[in-house]
Amino acid sequence: MATINDNYLKLAGSYLFAEIGRRVAAFKEANPQADIIRLGIGDVTQPLPAACIEAMHKAVDELSQAETFRGYGPEQGYSFLTDAIIENNYTKRGISIDSDEIFVSDGSKSDCGNIQEIFGLDNKVAITDPVYPVYLDTNVMAGRTGTLQADGHFEGVTYLPCDASNNFAPELPKDHVDMIYLCCPNNPTGTTLSRAELKKWVDYARENQSVILFDAAYAAYITEEDVPRSIYEIEGAKDVAIEFRSFSKTAGFTGTRCGYTIIPKTVKGRAADGTLVEFNKLWNRRHTTKFNGTAYIVQRGAAAIYTPEGQQQVKELVGYYMENARIIREGLEAAGITAYGGVNAPYIWLKTPNGMSSWDFFDKLLTEVNIVGTPGAGFGPCGEGYFRLTAFGDRENTLRAVERIKTKLRF
Questions:
Q1: Which fold is adopted by the domain 53-307?
Q2: What is the pLDDT of residue 41?
Q3: Fewest beta carbons less than 10 Å away: which of 27, 195, 301, 372?
């Protein structure tokens, strides 16, 4: 009989979202007239930018003619997209990225999850707590961790607590770690790391020969000047950091699927025989073996983001969601609820009132004002006592939700 990868049995499963779905379904069945507003899922609601739609329509027409038809494309991405990314997101910020250091994919979630395949299983992993689940879960699946403990932590993982007491900025680990996952702006807390704070991590990685896996999926939402848009703005980062980017929240590509990863050739790891090897070469081998490239139509749509029209439309789209974030954050504060984030990110991380648990607050919000959010405990033990709301709803529902919280929620 075939055997299984027992590491999967270590996982708690899709408990968070399964439990959210179960509770919402039970409430809806008992209260069929309830007008439920969902501010829990991190999915966009507004249409793709017009420039992207136009470019994709044109690309479809190209595929209808033999003269302009395209089959398999370069696995690393078409140059019309990679050149535009490098010029607009890096060169203009004084960062030099070579064309063979960028890999276009079907989204940063896939890359964040798959990147661990090119690292040895004996590497020590550090993640922030709370955290985007894909970082931890994929390392559990690979067998890089021990079992789940009673306190909600996995053996063999270095957790970096982030809460109000340290302003959601993780402290450097006391012991040596090899792989460091950082998400900035952060999902779920919506908070960021300043230039000085990020430099501390780059310095640590250089001193300890570690690699930073930097998820910058929400870089387009940054408004404050002291928050780097790319980790490569920090001196020395190109020697120790891999960066993940996404078009999902920047331009509404959550369903269209497109992102990219930057792996400088100067980021290296050590082979068993002591030889230094470029992670770029390993990822290129993995990428070309397991991936046939992002669809031509999608890449044409993504490239349109960098036209003058596309840039303006993306700016308006990001502005729409950030206005939602302001409305939610200020509405919570008016209701006497402490809120974080929502300034450089489309997530609002609130402190549950009166010491209420995350799940108790979930039930209260659902039953009293018919709003669905995400319990902070679902993102890690340090998320207990916190709660996430997203700004990705439409404006009408956002305004209605905030008004309900301000006028109908009772503590």
A1: Aspartate Aminotransferase; domain 2 (3.40.640)
A2: 81
A3: 195
